[in-house]
Design brief:
Layout (H helix, E strand, L loop, with lengths): L18 E4 L5 E6 L5 H9 L3 H8 L8 H8 L6 E8 L2 E11 L12 E8 L8 H15 L4 E6 L4 H8 L4 E7 L2 E7 L4 H23 L3 E5 L8 H12 L4 E5 L9 E2 L2 E4 L11 E4 L6 H10 L4 E4 L9 H16 L3 E3 L5 E4 L6 E4 L7 E8 L2 H13 L4 E6 L8 H9 L6 E6 L5 H12 L4 E5 L20 H10 L3 E3 L2 H13 L7 E6 L2 H13 L3 E2 L3 E2 L6 H13 L5 E6 L2 E2 L5 E2 L3 H14 L5 E5 L5 H5 L5 E2 L33 E2 L5 E2 L2 H21 L15 H12 L8 E2 L2 H9 L8 E3 L3 H11 L3 E5 L13 E5 L2 H15 L2 H4 L1 E5 L5 E10 L3 E8 L2 H6 L2 E5 L4 H9 L18 H17 L3 E11 L4 E3 L2 E5 L17
Parallel strand pairs: 5-6, 9-10, 9-13, 10-12, 13-14, 14-15, 18-19, 18-20, 20-21, 21-22, 23-24, 23-25, 23-26, 26-29, 29-32
Antiparallel strand pairs: 1-2, 2-3, 3-4, 4-5, 6-8, 7-8, 11-12, 16-17, 16-19, 27-28, 30-31, 33-43, 34-37, 35-36, 35-37, 38-39, 38-41, 39-40, 41-42, 41-43
Helix pairs in contact: 6-11, 8-9, 10-14, 11-12, 14-19, 15-19, 16-17, 22-23, 26-27
Length: 952
């Protein structure tokens, strides 16, 4: 909301302070600066505040605001006097104000850095987390304006407000003076304040999703009068799933006298329903959606699923229509799934919601599934159904204009009904937040992601996302750093999801292989090796093996302490006449279930070839088994299988001792089973490591001059920095890096042979002669580098050869540098990506590594564990550790260098790019031979500011 011309002349209206936020109960509100045009809203708001709340605010009865009060509270300079309001439906529900004061408590201007702050929240909205959210935003505003402390006077009886300040996580002091509590808050963010903010964010966003997935009542807006159409389909699916709440159909064109559709009450508008509606499914043409949204907002609907198309996927006009849809919905406190959505499903028995276009509600299970594509959603539902997998929740978000995969990660994090999160993503609207949430969620349950539209320029037209400059391989590496299981196809996602949902995590990569086909066993063995697992020699049970043989072999493998997982391979039994018998898969499934249920908890996967009924029987996981078991029947087609597991014999295990059988995932190919198991092994390893997080060694603090670096950066950028940034010269880069204990070997220019000799004399022989022309830089293979020049004669001869071969000195820009100890040439880089944030990269120097893309990446800030993994994760890492009898190099010194670069970039966001090339890692120590640094005004860090929803 822009102010009128009466607004303060000191500063223009700060529209970047405007923000949509999610409150504690899952509803949304808007925070914005108060302007001179808000006088009537302020008066109306104040009239709805109770006398008690007014007393707490003003320390005296204050029934109404005077004209002077209204003028004071609506006129701000946005520097020394700032007021923010929280609005829902355009009306105020809360306000906060600060006034800058001096040491005596009188009004002041900068450089005074303290302000008095006061809040007022409408009674009907107290308890929704409004004041806590306002405190985050007014604190961020104050820091921007140079204020470092808030002072507040609170009556002792105002315990709610005292709790808001106390729980914020800021460093604070409290005293009791003149009958009130005096609070002083240091506004510098702390680890505790950031943790509090993110915990509140998680609870609020999870609650906003929960309100959509577990409504008490649903209205389908656009349910057709005749069968067919999107709205009528959703209505039918709601009823078919057995939704436990109330269902209403809404159609503004109902015939006179028509009061039901498909047996449910039908109405022309939400206002006619006469009771609260929690969720509205909107299935009307795009031009009629605003009317439907307004009807929903005015009648208290909590959330929308917008199936209607015709938005951002249709171009510029559609994008503006989509922005207006989000603006309108949020103004009423509603969140949106869609537009252009396929719908949502919640399989909880307490809800049984199918508000989607999927004709069948999938079986209940422990997998949560999010997809941005309706077509992919249909394929995934179909694939999971065929494999006997069950879902806890399903969401197809379409253009995800509001609610995204991040919100569902917040929900699934502590959802007791979800053990595995599967996400098909075509874009990442807030990559930094996604990485943070995925890391936290992956620490307690697997997160499996397929990233579509991976190549530059192929982002779906309905999605507004930041532009990333990093390749997809880097995105994949960063996801894995966060514990995300990144796979390439939806088939691989289903394969991994089935194993992770129903089997325990493996303790390691040691795999037992057993089955009745030697060839299939050997194939599985080879694939295990290719995936980095440690398979044991396959156990061939021969083609005459019975289910009892499978059971015994599986039991033995599970009991073996040298085995972490088992892959069972099975082919049909071959009869005496030489013809293949398809066999009864239920018999084998029973045997495998029994062995898995009664043995140690280790993952089991089955690779089968054309065994009828096996996959279906293995996916049945609802029975229990006790020991001892009768002998299993031979695995032949002529013999049947019991319909139910045998009852325990007298004197055997009681029901309490019986153990639940989990589904055993079955795969039609060894490659798919092994790949899923390998992902589980890698994830389990990450999870064990994440339980003890890495750290940044304390010794770095003693050798880092962060204030000195900040002063140099400020001086280099100047008072009016070029937004495009500026590269640093050689000496400037050396001085800045030296502040962080990073020494770059000096390089002296050599525009002629005479200058080259002088430089070598100054540096000391032996020296290297190098060209620095852009087309030859770091290209020793093109002959632009001469090494080990140990005399003036050798140097002059090399200089002549260089200029004769490659060009004139003015073109080559030769330099002289002292020789470094021999070692392995490496490259260290750090860059700020607009989407992903600060990224630390490492690889070996040279064309082969660059050509093969053998570079590893980690997000900044990096810990000691991150950098250790970074240098070991490239394919050429053995070169650093004594490959082919060479001496191992000083990787400890290399890890320290990586930590220092990470710290520099993290401390100073103005450093947008660093490249150290080459970094020679010797058996003892490292030598940085070249460095380039680029500075730029720091990019906005939305991930560290107060909570806010993405802009529309």
């Amino acid at each position: 909301m822009q102010p009128s011309s009466e607004q303060s002349p000191h500063h223009v209206y700060p529209d970047h302070w405007e923000a949509d936020v999610v409150l504690r109960d899952g509803g949304t509100a808007r925070i914005r600066p108060i302007t001179t045009d808000d006088a009537e809203r302020l008066v109306s708001f104040y009239e709805q505040v109770s006398d008690e709340s007014k007393y707490y605010r003003f320390f005296a009865p204050y029934p109404r605001l005077s004209a002077k009060d209204v003028h004071r509270f609506t006129h701000h300079d946005y520097v020394d006097r700032v007021g923010l309001a929280v609005t829902v439906g355009g009306e105020f529900i809360a306000t906060v104000r600060y006034d800058r004061i001096d040491a005596t408590g009188r009004p002041a201007s900068a450089p005074a850095d303290e302000a008095e702050v006061a809040f007022l929240v409408q009674d009907a909205h107290q308890g929704r987390g409004v004041a806590s959210t306002l405190l985050e935003h007014i604190a961020a505003v104050a820091r921007e304006r140079g204020i470092r402390r808030f002072a507040a006077e609170v009556l002792p009886a105002n315990t709610k407000m005292i709790k808001v300040f106390r729980d914020a996580g800021y460093t604070q002091q409290r005293s009791f003076e003149d009958g009130s509590v005096h609070l002083t808050l240091d506004l510098e963010p702390t680890a505790e304040s950031l943790a509090v903010q993110r915990a509140r964010e998680q609870r609020a966003e999870a609650k906003s999703v929960q309100r959509l997935l577990a409504p008490g009542s649903v209205a389908v807006i656009g349910a057709g009068r005749t069968p067919g159409g999107v709205g009528r389909t959703v209505l039918r699916n709601l009823l078919g799933a057995g939704f436990t709440g109330r269902v209403h159909a809404v159609n503004s064109a109902l015939d006179a006298g028509q009061d039901t559709i498909d047996g449910v009450p039908a109405h022309r508008s939400l206002g006619e329903i006469g009771e609260p509606v929690d969720l509205a499914v909107v299935a009307v043409p795009a031009d009629r959606v605003p009317e439907a949204v307004a009807d929903c907002g005015e009648h208290g609907v909590q959330g929308l699923v917008v199936l209607s198309a015709g938005y951002a996927e249709w171009g510029a006009e559609g994008r503006e229509r989509q922005r207006e849809l989000v603006r309108q919905a949020r103004s009423y406190g509603m969140r949106i799934i869609g537009p252009n959505a396929f719908g949502i499903i919640n399989n909880s028995e307490e809800v049984r919601l199918n508000a989607s276009l999927a004709p069948e509600r999938p079986a209940s299970g422990r997998i949560g599934l999010f997809t941005q594509s309706g077509a992919i959603g249909i394929a995934l539902l179909s694939g999971l159904y065929r494999r006997g997998a069950g879902l806890s929740t399903f969401i197809s978000a379409g253009n995800r204009a509001d609610i995204s995969g991040n919100d569902f990660l917040q929900y699934w994090y502590d959802d007791p009904d979800t053990d595995v999160a599967l996400l098909y993503l075509e874009s990442l609207g807030n990559p930094r937040k996604f990485t943070r949430l995925a890391r936290r969620t992956a620490a307690v349950k697997p997160v499996v992601v397929v990233k579509g539209a991976r190549h530059s320029g192929s982002t779906p037209p309905g999605h507004a996302v930041p532009v990333s400059r990093i390749p997809d391989s880097t995105v994949s590496a960063l996801m894995r750093q966060a514990g995300v299981i990144r796979v390439d196809t939806v088939t691989e996602m289903v394969d991994a999801g089935l194993l992770l949902a129903d089997q325990p995590l493996p303790a390691g990569g040691r795999v037992a292989i057993l089955g009745n086909s030697e060839s299939l066993g050997l194939l599985t063995y080879d694939v295990c090796l290719a995936e980095g697992l440690r398979p044991r020699p396959p156990i061939d049970l021969t083609t005459s093996a019975t289910p009892q043989d499978f059971r015994d072999a599986l039991s033995a493998a599970l009991a073996d302490g040298g085995c972490d997982a088992v892959i069972v391979t099975a082919i049909p039994w071959v009869g005496e006449n030489g013809e293949a018998e398809p066999g009864d898969g239920e018999v084998l499934a029973t045997a495998l279930h029994t062995a898995a249920a009664t043995g140690p908890a280790k993952p089991v996967a089955v690779v089968h070839v054309e065994i009828g009924g096996l996959a279906e029987a293995l996916s049945a996981a609802t029975s229990t088994v006790s020991q001892p078991r009768p002998a299993a029947q031979p695995f032949t087609a002529a013999q049947g299988a019991p319909a139910e597991p045998p009852a325990p014999a007298p004197g055997t295990d009681t029901p309490e001792e019986a153990r639940r059988i989990g589904r055993i995932p079955a795969y039609p190919a060894a490659e798919r089973a092994v790949r899923a198991l390998a992902e589980a092994v890698r994830y389990a390893r990450w999870r064990r490591q994440a339980a003890v997080p890495g750290k940044v060694p304390d010794f770095l603090d003693d050798t880092i001059d962060a204030p000195g670096a900040a002063a140099r950066i400020d001086a280099l950028l100047g008072e009016d920095p070029d937004p495009r940034g500026r590269p640093l010269g050689h000496d400037e880069a050396r001085e800045l890096l030296a502040c962080y204990g990073i020494a770059v070997r000096p390089t002296l220019p050599a525009p002629g042979p005479k200058e080259a000799v002088a430089a070598a004399t100054r540096l000391g022989y032996p020296v290297a002669l190098k060209t620095t022309a852009p087309h030859l830089r770091h290209r020793a293979d093109l002959g632009g580098v001469r090494l080990d020049l140990d005399s003036e004669a050798a140097l002059r001869r090399a200089y002549g050869d260089l200029t004769e071969l490659l060009g004139k000195p003015a073109e080559l820009r030769p330099v002289v540098q002292a020789m470094a100890p021999r070692g392995v040439d490496t490259v260290v880089r750090a860059t700020i990506d607009p989407a992903a944030g600060a990224v630390l990269s490492f690889g070996l120097a040279g064309a082969p590594s660059e050509l093969l893309g053998d570079t590893a990446h980690r997000l900044v800030p990096a810990t000691d564990r991150d950098v250790a993994e970074l240098i070991r994760s490239i394919r050429a890492a053995p070169v650093l550790f004594g490959w082919r009898g060479a001496a191992p190099v000083d990787t400890a010194a290399l890890e320290e260098l990586l930590l220092r670069i990470s710290r520099l970039v993290d401390d100073h966001p103005e450093v947008v790019s660093i490249a150290l090339e080459p970094v020679v890692v010797a058996p003892q120590g490292i030598s940085v031979l070249g460095a380039s640094v680029r500075l730029s005004p720091p990019p906005a860090r939305t991930d560290l500011g107060p909570r806010r929803l993405s802009n529309y």
